[in-house]
Design goal:
The chain has about 110 residues and is α+β, with helices and mostly antiparallel strands. It has helices at about 10-20, 25-30, 45-55, and strands spanning about 35-40, 40-45, 65-70, 75-85, 90-100, 105-110. The termini are far apart.
Length: about 110
């Protein structure tokens, strides 16, 4: 019997930080200085831009992320389907994560 895959620890850390409203831990989940958030084509580079985005549209909106499904691609990406809640967008979203050195290099949000 094959064990189900485990969500990458860097992705789990980022999701847990968002759910706890912990901006510092959320930012620490990204690679220093080069992390990227791509929110439907709007790109935010580095901790300052990511924090501004998060303060107004993610953690600042008391986001909640309930992982519904996840899988890994051949391109070493982690795809997470999550039910998003909070005071901003609510509904299903797809999050694509790229990882390097056990940190998130990119979080891309799409439908």
């Amino acid at each position: 019997m094959t064990m189900p895959p485990v969500l990458h620890p860097a992705v789990r850390t980022l999701i847990d930080a968002a759910n706890l409203g912990d901006t510092e831990a959320f930012l620490d989940a990204f690679t220093p200085y080069v992390g990227i958030v791509d929110d439907w084509g709007r790109r935010f580079n580095g901790p300052r831009e990511i924090q501004r985005w998060s303060d107004s549209e993610f953690i600042g909106k008391r986001v909640t992320l309930k992982v519904v499904h996840f899988y890994y691609t051949d391109d070493a990406e982690v795809i997470v389907i999550a039910q998003v809640g909070g005071d901003g967008f609510n509904g299903p979203s797809t999050f694509t994560f790229r990882i390097a050195d056990d940190r998130v290099t990119e979080m891309r949000i799409t439908a």
